[in-house]
Amino acid sequence: MFGRKIFRNNCLLPIFTILFLLYDYGVQAQATAPNVLPTCANAVNAKTPASIKAKCLATSGELDTADYVCINSLKTELFKTVTTPSNSCSKISLTDNAYYVFVCTDVAKCTLKTSTDQFAGFLLIYQYKSGQLIQLKNNKYYLQGTKMLSCLKGNSFNSDPTDFSDNGKCTVAANGIYINPDTDSTQALSAKPLVKVTTGDGTASTGLTIAPGNYYVDQSSENGGNYSKLIYCSSATSCQSIAPSDGIYINADDSKQISCTSGTCTSGNAGSTAIYLNPAVSGDLTKALISCTNGGTCDPKNGVDKKYYMEGADDSGVLIKCTTAEGCRRVIASTTAVYLDEGSESSGYTKVIQCPSGYGDCKLVTATEAIDAYIDGDDNHNLIISGSSKYTTAKKTSGFYIDKLNSKNVISCTSDGCTSSPGSTLKGHHYIDGTDATGKKLITYTSSGGTSANTLIASVTEGNVYFIDGSNPKKIINCTGAAGGAACALETPNLTNVFKFYESDSSHIITCSSDGCIYAKGLPLCKSDEISSNEALCKDPSDGNVANGNHCIHEDGKIYKSLTVARKRDTNSCAPIALSVTHIFTSAGAATNFESATGTDIIYTCDDNKCLQVFSSSYKDDTTNNLYSCNDDGACSKETLADGNVYLSGVATISTTQPYLTYGLTQCSKSVGDFAPSDCKKVSSPSGHYINTLGTKSTRNPSCIIKCTSGKCLAMDAGNNSFYVSASEKLIKCGNGDGCAFVEDVTNDSGTDYTKGYLLDYSGLVDTNTSTKLILCTSTKCINPTITDGHYIDMADNNIIHCVDGLCKTEAHGAGANSPKYYLDAATKKVIQCTNGAKCTLIDKPLKGYYLNSGNPEKPVIQCTGASTDPCSEASALTTNKCEKVGNIISDSGIFICFSDDNTLPKANAAVQIQSTGNASHIAYKTLFLEDKADFPGASQKTVDVKINNDGSAYILEEASLPTCGETCNEKYCIKESGGKVLIYTNGGSGLDCTVITGEASSTAIVYSTLDGTSKNPESETPDLAYSCTYDSDGKATKCELVKGYTQKATKTVQCSGWKNDPCTVVDTSSLTTNCVDVDDGNLGKFSNNLGVCFSTDATYGGINLPADSTTYTLFYTTEINPYYGWSKNTFLPLALTSKTVLVTKATVDVTQNLTEYSFDIF
């Protein structure tokens, strides 16, 4: 705090009280005896001589006895009674810069103590400096010899944190570590920066051994076992108290763990065995980490080059990477990554760090006996493989592995490295498992409990069994060998068409052509050596006859009919049927017709050379206009057609790369009149997404979406709570197992307005909650916008979308109940604000200043200039604890704004921290005197008033105003000038005309409102601003002025600064009972038992009561910004006081009168 001087005019004008106050904005306090020395009863100033004896008179008029001390009213001299000569009064000789300690046993019974042995109970301490006696209070400390005393502001001797009546009482300091208060010249701060108190009686020592980078809890900030400050020592002789950043520190006093969250720290035994980043080390591996033992202490630990560590708990989500070049630092993991945990090296690498979706989503996983495989996040040529409860790394150039990080994926390794991608989910597709050197295990796709996963087939059966290669459907896997122990190998089919049985299920066949292989439940296979004779019935592979009239399919791609003749002179036959037509058969192979088709029939379409089965698709018979859908086994049934239905159609086109099977598309869309089956037609070159009529409404919404690219379509699982853009640019929403549907109104889907943000497009999904596409909707259509790296609002959930290198994922933003998080919007370059339990929102008009940036640890702030385009950008902070320029942003255990350019000052005296805690004590106001207006974003001049809010923002304070009226008005307030005066208008009830507001005739009244003009009643609501309006004899407003100060409404008192984004505060008038104290700054309080404007404890000059029925004018000088009245630093602040208001006034005040100086300290 700064010294305060009050000047009062001796020649009072009739209605003016002229008061100048050198003002310092601080925390309110209340002072009552015995927390101050008694004032000598007949104290006078130097211009009014009086006897020395008179200065020692008690309030009763009698002379004090027993060496009791009093102080004169100017706080420049001390006197005490002495016994020799009897009943005399003596002036105490004072030494400049010396301290004086007193013990008070009653209101007026204070004695001077000269020995530290006498320091006990409640004490008062004064420093004599430059002719002034300055009392130590407001959390000041005093060191003398081996004694440390604390003079706390409040909450030290009682349990009420708002009661500061003990401010000024000093006691022996509590045990702990303190910054040396530099009050003992024999123990100077410059040589001995710390004081340690240990014995409970204030006994102190300055002999601590201090190493650079040491941290301690600052005992001066202790409250209920918690600490709001840490002490950081940059060298053996330089330590300072700092606001802590979230994290873990080693307490250099006892090696215990200091844990800090949201500006509050605790110190004690470690809660778990874990590794943490050491905030004291930067750019070096030596002691770059902190290693803590559960229930024990913490020690510094060296980092290892090119190794990774999990910070904190097993599921903390924070990854540390150490390199020789950069030391150890927190890093953002790739979208999907796994690393060996170097923290488990001593136990043989028993853990890995799994990061399934990037930064903030990492966890430690302990190895088991199972064989699991991951791609090494640091080198994709290596796999991390578990076994025997430990992990090892190995370079792999071939093979397939189940990706343990995402069991839907298969890892494929080549000489170029290993990649993870979704495994083939098609029936009959398998992979040879690379973890089994014997080649006995296969990887396949299964559906268990409604979820998809890749599992191992323990072994294959006896004999030859066949599978389609999941990585290339032109190859097959041939497994041969003895029972229970077959080995598998890849083969390339050497025939144009090959049919092989899948395992022991003879109803399914693998069909291979030059295009590749497919798997379905089709016609039985014709045995090849019986076809050429054409004189016998068709034979199946077991040499059995194919039943009379039934059909089989041959490896030449044609369908044959087995026919038994009735007459002996004729021969049985096995002959091909007609080509270039479509045939339908029963499951047994008998020909049938489309009209009588059942749900088990199978369909083949034939060209001039071969016949292909329809499966996982549909066929429309143009003769009957019937459509038949066929499942993945090839079983077909007739569909009921309706307008809007969409189906995959035709036979599969086979590709050697995923997607392996694609189809055509049939869409039902009526042209005119009523819908008819003939309105269902094949779409030419379809593109985009469609809702699959045959999709299953169950977990995963199987096959609910059809995706078409360049005329090739496939069905895919929609997943739960997923979104897509349809081919017609509508939004498709797929629910939690209840299928997919179009969103009819994107601006109000059960209360959600999708136009306010973005959605992950699940058609580009590459991993859980990670996609290569976003969806952006307007009220008329939805599109896939071009993706810019950065952050977007997630309208599907209360998350944030983060895009890096074209990959976008949803992440939890972690905003607390009172601590919002901010991100730079990648599209608009505005600010995204995220709060707890709600969807993030876009701040359409970001404030001019800074927001803490949660989206980029390398650029910890978002700076906004107020520009109409690209108003904000991410910005770096200077890594230093010194301020070189006003407006600088520095990073040193937190983010700070510099309000001083004096680099010799400690950070606490030169900068203020931006914090997002919701804690009222973390709000600050500063006037910045900039060297250049470019030194603070959005500044239009070199002097700016700034609010450092407790929500993580810091911004220029600009005068608030209601919106300017347009040509029409609604029911809200707006303003416009009339005759050079500002008037408030609103809708008068007749159409949209603007009508000036009305009130009581010939009166002045206050109008309360929000910034957008919504009327507010402070009896039950909190306004943003207020206007004082004067009404004429007809009750019409003739002038309205912005309110800066205090007003009353019924039982409420309302304080408005008149600044934008600095809402008014509302309290019960009856609660304003705190007496004026020395740190007051013109705020309302209790003075002389009545409501008044407060400045100090002085009974005469410490405040001004509100007048009963007139107006009093007051003027004072601000040495700091004043948030009560919206007033800048180092300026004169004029106030007009009435019985109900204290407002900034434009009245002219005469300050030329003769002034007398009164001085009051506020230490």
TrEMBL record:
Keywords associated with the record: Signal
Signal peptide: 1-29
Protein name according to UniProt: Scaffoldin
Species assigned in the record: Neocallimastix californiae
